Amino acid sequence: MITAIVLIQAEADAIPDAAQAIADIEGVGEVYSCAGDVDLIATVQVSTHEELADLIPGRIGKVPGVLDTVTHIAFRSYSRADTESAFSIGVED
């Protein structure tokens, strides 16, 4: 599975509608509105790079109100939940 983080610039008045439209696209996990350099951040999971190539410019980039996207492909996931579950394998409460 390929995970990508997509940074999205959007028209200010279109942010809520664009965020919901992006969240409704298959392959998109979560969409966050945020402060800072970008307006929205979406997490995407697909099986192939070809799907990613179709999804970002072909679907997300064409949502009304979306001005620009920058995509970062994740190599590994580091999270407290992953670490805690790895150390608890075989341990019963």
TrEMBL record:
Protein name per Swiss-Prot or TrEMBL: Lrp/AsnC family transcriptional regulator
Organism: Amycolatopsis vancoresmycina DSM 44592
InterPro entries in UniProt: Dimeric_a/b-barrel, Tscrpt_reg_AsnC/Lrp_C
A Pfam family assignment: AsnC_trans_reg
Superkingdom of this protein's organism: Bacteria
Residue ranges occupied by any Transcription regulator AsnC/Lrp ligand binding domain in the UniProt entry: 6-76
